[in-house]
Amino acid sequence: MLYDVIIVGGGPAGYTAALYCARGGLQTLILEKLSPGGQMATTENIDNYPGFDIGIDGLDLAEKMQIAAENAGAITEFDEVTGVELEGEEKVIHGSLQEYRGKTVILATGAAPRRMGIPREEDLLNRGVAYCATCDGRMYKDKVVAVIGGGNSAAADALILSKLCKKVYIIHRKDKLKAAHSYLEPLKKAENIQLIFNGQVEALVGEEKLEAIQVKVAGEEGQTQLACDGLFIAIGRVPNTRLFAEGLNLDPQGYVIADETTKTNIPGVFAAGDLRTKPLRQVVTAAADGATASKFAEEYLNGR
Ligand code: NDP
Predict the structure, then answer these.
(1) Average pLDDT score over the chain
(2) How far is the CA of 237 from the centre of ligand 1 (A)?
(3) Mutation test of ligand 1: which of 135, 159, 178 has the most ligand atoms closer than 8 Å to its C-beta?
(4) pLDDT tier, 44 (very low <50, low <70, confident <90, very high otherwise)
């Protein structure tokens, strides 16, 4: 089977592209590794996607997007993509189960939080270690937490957590934050936030769940052990573009270079959502990219 469009990734960008492509009469396949929704599915309540007066559970929104696209005629295959051949007229996507062929490809594999790379980080995931205050902050109500990072994400996470938690440490490896000026005053005003500069978290303590962290502060003797129930790692994101690094133009951070048309440097290949170079990565901008990608995929098909 030669599909008109193969969409890699079933998050909001992928399923919006699928909805538009299928409604446009294109033979549309979505390849999703595990379960639809991407990062959105891990968000308890999405408050900033228009149309839901009290917000919506991320998993529910993901299911609705999938059902809407499939009702329009799109097909989902659950298969992990292991390799791609994008250059030719006929694009080939290698999955761990089978191979797929399409005339166009929309890449919508998103991004993932950057890992610290310290021992036990994966073991203690969801048992103290977290990457999203908006998603998981509520689990730490009235508890002590630490946020690692000095950028806007760390500042935003710390402010969210300061409203829920007893105490919030921000641990940053430099001697000043790089977060935007607008965050600095609220951070200073929040009485339960304590900043630790020149600090590196070197070890996670706790068997079943996180109980403390070992912090090394530059210029100080030894390590300090801070008792805490949660550690929010906010040190940036990494785009899921490793598979496409050959042939596609990526920026120095690994995001696919594509403008508002979502066109990449390879004809017939489009990049939609968080994996694309863009100023704002949100569900609503991912969905917008998906719609745009469908328009240009259709235009490419008409010109073939
Ligand atoms: P950033 O890349 O801006 O910041 C990452 C921070 O983590 C830096 O302070 C960096 O330190 C630190 N860091 C990186 N690696 C490590 C490590 N291994 N150990 C310890 N610390 C580390 O990422 P953000 O996620 O904060 O922001 C990403 C983008 O999203 C930015 O463009 C940001 O402006 C935007 N954003 C905007 C928001 C808003 O405006 N409301 C909210 C959230 C994000 P160092 O400084 O030493 O490199």
Answers:
(1) 95
(2) 8
(3) 178
(4) low
